[in-house]
Design a protein that fits this description.
Keywords: Membrane, Transmembrane, Transmembrane helix. Helix content is 91%, strand content 0%. It has 97 residues and is mainly α.
Amino acid sequence: MDEKEKQEISLIGRLLSMEALLILMGIVSLGYGIMKAQVMSIFWGVMILVGAVVLSFVRKKDWKKHWEEMEGAQRRYEARMKAQEQQEKERDNAAKQ
């Protein structure tokens, strides 16, 4: 396969991706609802389109980096809680003496 064929396959793959099908379904539902004046079709069309946009943002996020940041925050929180407990124990011991 040469480069042009790979690009064409890639383009077809992107056009037929799940996100594209979701957007198409949302547009069709929205258009049908507007044409037939059906509120539920309009509602579902809008919801599908909003969901597709949210999905695209979620898929673009760097999840590995996100989870590393969350684990680091959890470790810092646990260290802070441990230090706070240690200080409380020291205060209690000092108050008893």
